[in-house]
Amino acid sequence: MDAVAVEKATIKTADDQEIAVVEQVTIPCFRCGVCCTCYQPSLLPEDIENIAAAMRISIAACVSEYALKVPTKEGYLLRQTEKGCVFLAREEDAQARCTIYRARPKACREWQPSLSRPACLEGLARLKSKGQLSLLDEIISSEEERREFRRSVGKAVPQGNST
Fold first, then answer.
1. Are 28 and 116 in contact (CB under 8 A)?
2. CB 70 within 8 A of CB 38
3. What angle do CA 37, 40, 41 make, to 5 degrees?
4. Domain coordinates in residue numbering, the chain
């Protein structure tokens, strides 16, 4: 039998118990911006074209201003500042906002927030440390997705433990 890779994550409950989540559980983005500060996405040629068009600048100007030449398959990474992605902005409530959201790179479009992603777990921890409590209904809007999440967490909790 072939081994199957399973993503794992550990979440903390409100009463500070740790629960191992053994399945990748996607969640809606709660706009913490951690992924925009931790990761530097590759830029495909079409990403550069889309960004340049959205900003109404030439491709050469886009590459010069917003891309970093690196030895990758794609050849470029999105430029970062000391605060993260060059296109990361913060709203008054500190929520992250992409200033080129409609033209964001493919890597960003394909990002799926998940409880198995360290960046998302860090974002949840930051929200908790600021005294902002996230209720399951606020993170996951669909009742079906909440049931799936509860089922996933239930599988991960050892027998005899209660949550």
1. no
2. no
3. 130
4. 9-29+133-156, 34-110
- Contact between 77 and 43 (Cβ < 8 Å): yes
Q: Is the pLDDT of residue 36 over 90?
A: yes
Of the candidates 100, 102, 57, 56, the one whose C-alpha atom is nearest the C-alpha of residue 78 is 100
CA angle 158/143/153 to nearest 5° reads: 10
Mean pLDDT of 36-59: 95
What is the CB neighbour count within 10 angstroms for residue 153?
20
pLDDT average, residue stretch 62-80: 89
Look over the chain and give the mean of its residue pLDDT values, rounded to a whole number. Answer: 79
Q: Is the pLDDT of residue 50 over 50?
A: yes
What are the tokens at 70? 């690196």
Both structure tokens of 132: 């902002």
- Token pair 């996951």 is at which residue? 140
